[in-house]
Amino acid sequence: MPGNSHTSVRSRTVAAELRKLREAQGLTCAEVGDKLGMSTSKVSRIETGRSGLQADDVLTLLGFYQVHGNRRAELMDLLRRGDEKGWWERQPGLPTLWRALIDFEAKALRIQNYESLLIPGLLQTAEYASAILQALESTLSAAEVDNLVASRMARQAILTRSSAPNYLAIMHEAAVRLPVGGPGVMARQLRWLQEMNERPSVSVRLVPISAGANAGLRGGFMVLEFGDEPALVFAENQETALFQEEEADLAGYRLALRNILNVALAPDATAERLSAIVAEMST
């Protein structure tokens, strides 16, 4: 597959997976290059996707890392479609997309997330997340719910590391008033939200009910920005999730974000509103 200057979200996902496979085996780029007759710089370029990914190189690396079967086919399919901008999947393709999201969150320098009815996933407590998952999909077993909750909790590690991204979480006031999991679960969730809001890298903003109709009515989305790669938008609904990377799409989401922030409470007013809601739930 010829290389090109545009590195799509699919190509970036394949490149990141190759890096993780190497690191899982405790190898350096130089060691892999020596074994396969590649230069260290070539292995490094492949893992960033900056020089374009060649199918032969990716197949060679997957064979070296002993990746076979469905996972190999999945990665090669992503590579085959790597020149396509954007990426959307319907179930059951979401697990692949979610692996990509987790990796992009870990690399992002700035994340801006709007939610209309839910506390954002990066700020959810385990019991709140469990209640949401059970409500959304009643057929999940207890073990499946536990695994999904554990994955969500693991995602949140990016907010507590020393190089945490700048995270802006905007949510409609309905999200913090919706009684998920009962009063106790919701009260603990809101106290956790208050605690996270005190972190220097985290900022929480509420859109008050009094704001009325606004740009957030179209649903939640996340804008991820990186140091040396194009920004991405991630959004999902009932059965579909998607990444968007076209500049026109990004501009539309950024405009929506500005319009939502224009009707949101200021940081201090948001903190006061959260405290008042917590007090209400405690009475």
From TrEMBL:
Please report the stretch or stretches of sequence annotated as the HTH cro/C1-type domain: 18-72
**Annotated Gene Ontology MF terms?**
DNA binding
Gene3D superfamilies linked = lambda repressor-like DNA-binding domains
Q: Return the PROSITE patterns for the record.
A: HTH_CROC1
Organism's domain of life?
Bacteria
SMART domains per the UniProt record, alphabetical = HTH_XRE
**Protein name, per record:** Helix-turn-helix protein
